[in-house]
């Protein structure tokens, strides 16, 4: 089976798009035919544009992001305001079609793991339907440990032991930024914990920031 990485977060704004775009760019730099998808989004489409750019334009923005809605609220509610319904089967079918064209697909969820995406499904349901590798992103700030533990706990046992955790540095470190990685390692194998620096806004995955970032992504996507 061609691998699918599913990137979810502890909340909206956790750093999912940064990681998804970086991952696609890192894979393609290794001559791996990779693509990034954000199947569903509400509000602006900047996330989808970043993923399309990271994929060197191999997919159009509408292929990267086929379901998009104007209101910046949960996709389920945003779709309702536009009198549309998103079905899990349709989303899985789209991702599966894209998957046949590429060696690796990186899928970015919307909001947190349990944020409602469409009719009777959320990011967890989509991740499980795809049998994807879960990657959970959190801002490396006070509260990250609790949010990560809760998100992992919400996964089935099989996926809990597969999940990889990524701490993304904030613009300004707080009192917990330096200690979070060590504390997280008391709950999870250190080999499943990764750290990324802060990236400026607007974010561009070109070029990758440093050799250390490249190495982190190589290990994360191994």
Report on the architecture of this protein.
The protein has 222 residues and is an alpha/beta fold. The protein has one domain: P-loop containing nucleotide triphosphate hydrolases (Rossmann fold, 3-Layer(aba) Sandwich), CATH 3.40.50. Helices cover 37% and strands 21% of the residues. It is built from ten helices and ten strands. The strands form three sheets. A six-stranded parallel beta sheet has the order 2-5-1-8-9-10, sandwiched between helices. A two-stranded parallel sheet has the order 3-4. Strands 6-7 form a two-stranded antiparallel sheet. α1 (16-29) runs parallel beside α2 (46-54) and α5 (88-99) crosses α6. It is globular, with a radius of gyration of 16 Å. The relative contact order is 0.19.
Brief rundown of the structure:
With 222 residues, the protein is an alpha/beta fold.
Key features of this structure:
222 residues, alpha/beta, Rossmann fold, two-stranded parallel sheet, 10 helices, 10 strands, 37% helix
Layout of helices and strands, plus pairs?
Blueprint: E1 4-9, H1 16-29, E2 34-37, E3 40-42, H2 46-54, H3 61-64, E4 67-69, H4 75-81, H5 88-99, E5 104-112, E6 116-118, E7 121-122, H6 123-130, E8 133-139, H7 144-153, H8 157-160, E9 164-168, H9 180-184, E10 193-196, H10 211-220
Parallel strand pairs: 1-5, 1-8, 2-5, 3-4, 8-9, 9-10
Antiparallel strand pairs: 6-7
Rg, rounded, reads: 16 Å
How many domains would you count in the coordinates?
1
Helix fraction bin: 25-40%
Q: So how many helices?
A: 10
Mean pLDDT: 94
Strand content: 15-25%
């Amino acid at each position: 089976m061609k691998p699918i990485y599913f990137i979810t977060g502890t909340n909206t704004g956790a750093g999912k798009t940064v990681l998804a775009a970086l991952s696609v760019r890192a894979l393609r730099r290794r001559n791996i035919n990779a693509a990034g998808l954000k199947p569903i989004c509400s509000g602006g489409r900047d996330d989808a544009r970043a993923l399309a750019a990271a994929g060197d334009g191999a997919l159009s923005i509408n292929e990267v992001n086929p379901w998009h809605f104007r209101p910046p609220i949960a996709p389920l509610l945003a779709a309702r305001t536009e009198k549309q319904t998103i079905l899990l089967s349709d989303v899985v079918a789209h991702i599966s079609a894209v998957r046949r064209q590429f060696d690796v697909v990186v899928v970015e969820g919307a909001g947190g793991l349990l944020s409602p995406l469409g009719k009777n499904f959320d990011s967890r349901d989509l991740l499980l339907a795809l049998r994807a590798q879960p990657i959970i992103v959190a801002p490396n700030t006070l509260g990250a440990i609790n949010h990560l533990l809760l998100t992992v706990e919400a996964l089935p046992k099989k996926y809990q032991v597969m999940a990889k955790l990524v701490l993304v540095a904030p613009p300004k470190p707080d009192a917990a930024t330096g200690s979070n990685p060590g504390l997280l390692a008391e709950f999870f194998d250190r080999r499943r914990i990764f750290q990324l620096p802060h990236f400026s806004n607007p974010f561009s995955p070109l070029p990758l920031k440093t050799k250390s970032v490249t190495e982190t992504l190589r290990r994360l996507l191994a």
